[in-house]
Amino acid sequence: MRARFSLLSLLRAVLVVLVAAFSAVVLPRLGPLGPDLVLIVVVAAALLGGPAKGALLGLGAGWVVGLMPPAAATLGAAALTYAAAGAVSGLWHRDGAGSALMPPLATCAAVSTVAAMGILRAVVSGWPVPWVSAGWSIAMTTAVGLVVVPILIRTERELIRRRLA
Amino acid sequence: MTVFLLGLDLSRPGSTSFLRTGAAAAFGPVERVMTAGRDDDVVRLTRERDELAGALRQDEVNLRQAREVTSVLASPPAKGAKVLAARVVAFTPATSSGDRRVTIDVGSRDGVTKDLTVIAGTGLVGRVITVAAWTSDVLIVGDRHLTVGVRVGTAGRLGSVSAAAPVGSMPPEPGRLSLTLLEPGTVVVGDTITTLGSVGGRPFMPDIPVGTVISVDPDHGQLTSTAVVEPAVDVATLDVVAVVLSTQRSVPRPPAASLAK
């Protein structure tokens, strides 16, 4: 059981690294604003595993995001932010199949947590509050999560069912 | 016989349909075989066309990058300096608020060290802050942690440019910079801003264009003037840049004879 869990964790870690690299290399060339794709991976894991696992994966994913070149100015800030977002989205975890509304609600809650942290940071630092980018990020990430989170959850469940992970 | 059939077809069009049906039954398969052959041709030609279109796009990209490299290397800031052309490979994700950094594809193995100036064809990009073996992180103009000492206009008044708002002023719009003069004086719209330069050329070489003044803040009784600056480089579309490999002066400066008589 422990080996299966570890293999799934490894797959999630690889996915987080790939998505974080994609977010740094490709997404910024498509436009100034974009969805938070790493957070979507965290939300999917949190919906499957609950707040604690969501926070744990969020912490790891945040470190990957913070360390992925170009590295963030404040290392650790992204890790704590994503951990909080993972814990918040894990609150929508249900043991059964759950409602179809869970993925978008959990994604919206998670990305709102990240946006709120960014706004808080701007207010504390005396920077202009990024209302527009925060709003766009919430809308775009929720829209992508509506489609992608159920696919990720289904894939992970299928891997577990086939004992591949 | 032919004239008879022609007249029959003209007078009673439906009466010769058996001929058409028979001919279709006989020649149709032949046409299908030929058409199948043409399908292969179409597939092949379509594939070749797509490949050529892809190659053309790649050539256009290569040509654009070559032009950008030429533009950077031929730009006034690069004149006489040793520069290292580089390509931007990664940006700070849009979800990261406040930070404006890029990663370039040259590192310590290429001779890059910390605090070197990075330029593009039109002006200042930023300075190197982290160096790895094959990549480097660059703090770019527009990051709130970056302040650049500058000269303003033809008079060369001293000032500083930053993305952060001066005390008592409204923060600049995203993508714009704030200029604060460090000495009494006036600044007018259209003034060009160039780097002041640092000791040893680190982190900034002198006389690199930073931007142009597009509006002057109203006078609210502050000690010095403030203004809004349009950056010379659009950092959102950065692709090819150059790292200025500043070198310490090794030749002593010769004294000059006085021209006074």
Walk me through this protein's architecture.
The complex is a heterodimer of chains A (165) and B (261). Chain A is mainly α and 165 residues long. Chain A has a single domain, classed as Arp2/3 complex 21 kDa subunit ARPC3, CATH 1.10.1760.20. Chain A has 7 helices and no strands. The model of chain A has no long low-confidence stretch (mean pLDDT 87). Chain B has 261 residues and is α+β, with helices and mostly antiparallel strands. Chain B has 2 domains: 1-74; 83-244, Rod shape-determining protein MreC, domain 1 (Thrombin, subunit H, Beta Barrel). In chain B, the strands form 2 sheets. In chain B, strands 1-2-5-4-3-12 form a 6-stranded antiparallel barrel. A 6-stranded antiparallel barrel of chain B has the order 6-7-8-11-10-9. In chain B, strand 4 (124-131) and strand 5 (136-140) form a beta hairpin. Chain B is elongated. The mean pLDDT of chain B is 81. The A-B interface holds A 21, 23-25, 27-29, 31-34, 36, 65, 68-73, 78, 114, 118, 121-122, 125, 127-128, 130, 133-134, 137 and B 89-99, 101-103, 130, 132, 135, 137-138, 143-145, 164-165, 171, 174, 236.
